[in-house]
Amino acid sequence: MTTIDSINNWFIQNFGAITTEQVKGWFIYNPDEKLLFNTGLFLGLFLVFYFVYAFLRKTFYLRLTYVILFSLFFYYKSSGIYFLLLLLSSVVDYGLSQIIFKAEKDSTKKIYLIISVILNLGLLGYFKYMNFMIVTFNDMFQGNYKLHDIFLPVGISFYTFQSMSYIIEIYREEIKPTKNYIEYLFFVSFFPQLVAGPIVRAKDFLPQIYQKLNLTRQDVNNALFLIIGGLIKKTVISNYISVNFVDRVFDTPLSYTSFENLMASYGYAIQIYCDFSGYSDMAIGIALLLGFKLPENFRTPYKSVSITDFWRRWHISLSTWLKDFLYISMGGNREGSFAGYLFPSIFFFGLLLWGITNYNTSVIPLIVASVSILLFCLSFLLSSKRKQTLVTNLNLFTTMLLGGLWHGAGAQFIVWGALHGLALAVHKIFMELFPSKKDKSPNFLWRFFSIVITFHFVVFCWIFFRARDFETALQVINNIGQLTFEPELWQTIVIGYKNVFGLMLFGYVWHFLPETFTNGMKSVFDRTPLLIKAIILGFVYWIVYATAVAGSQPFIYFQF
């Protein structure tokens, strides 16, 4: 009895007494306290959920239904009543997928596929782009339409793309539909990757549903290693850098020095990597504990030797989705399409118009616009296969433009996508003009400079991605452009932000560690005695609790 009282007193001293209002708060939606992987609430709920899940492991539909209910609750805690939107979307898509599968005529299948795509993109377009279109219309035609009060459901882009992949793969006869709605809803609503990916392909995930659950000791080790690493990336590195430095500079860049703007750009690069890859690691780890394997989403992207290599390492599930369902659908490197010609034309016309409009203020916008158009033209004019390269680059550029727009409704996101699209086109012609020898790997010096150049281009693009609007991005770039060599000032700033810069350094060192070193750490963790693992897990518990006290920061990709 004394022991129980002692434990109770210790709990109250450290965590406070649990009230009825607190218990209600665990289960009722609060827009300021979303259910995140890096919160103590999720940890507690997941432990209870997993305890019951273990008893249901030998069942099938009961286990699927149980996970679906928890997934819907998880989404309700993130987006409130809009979990019904997920249900509505799933009912419509499931019905259309059945019609497409049973239809005998290709024309009938295509009609219902188009209906599905229009409904999905229409739903996504309303919630994500309606106000953007209103603002654009008002600016272009002096309109006075009022903005709508629209709530953006968390992760709507992710589950929309996932649902679309299911229907498209049925249309292409790559998969057969699920046996019933329960199985389909399990696929669409699976909570580990529901709100921020990885985007799971139906042909990769659905077969796992029908397999017998087989959770090995190695799977548990892998899952815990990923979850612990993801928590450290998110709670220790990303959150601290964001709150204490990056957000402040990007909110008011003109209030800070050129050096601070530069360091904030480097800071955001490691922040978004730790934030998003940390979430993906946790999602993959949690799914693994449930007996499901999700695809790898990040592969040390800042080690990339080219922009093409970067997109093979960054947000792999999205880049693969865009390639398979957008780039190839538009014709890929085989043939042109209306969209492939339309979107680049609109972008470059708008870019040139921006340069001409701002000519009286500065000649730089016009130079930027002219050089961009020239680079894109040279990317196919210098090719030995001009027509094919033109088609490829147009489709590639369109894919990246729409990929940028997928991330957010704003000119800065479109520019971010365009920069990557242009860089991919330039890299393709560079590789054609200066092909690398297949039997000879590049020397260390060439590889080093390739990584440095690629990394800094990506960091430059992140400025547009992070800035709240296009004008703010230009302010940051202009501020960095005025950088002068002032070692004493730099030293003062570094000392003032020593904790932030220390964590940035830690994040980059962790990222650039050789793969052999990381694998060695994993091997040591696997062989660690149970007691040591318990201590490590206890430390992670403390991290989660400390984060909850400080106020958890939402994952960056929740807004997409």
From TrEMBL:
The keyword Cell membrane applies. It is found in: Cell membrane. It is an enzyme of class 2 (transferase). One of its GO terms (molecular function) is acyltransferase activity. The chain crosses the membrane at residues 35-53, 82-99, 111-130, 150-169, 181-200, 220-241, 338-357, 363-383, 390-407, 413-433, 445-465, 489-510, 530-550. InterPro entries: Ac/AlaTfrase_AlgI/DltB (IPR024194), AlgI (IPR028362), MB_O-acyltransferase (IPR051085), MBOAT_fam (IPR004299). Keywords: Acyltransferase, Cell membrane, Membrane, Transferase, Transmembrane, Transmembrane helix. It is a multi-pass membrane protein. Belongs to the membrane-bound acyltransferase family. This is MBOAT family O-acyltransferase. The lineage of its organism: Bacteria, Pseudomonadati, Bacteroidota, Flavobacteriia, Flavobacteriales.
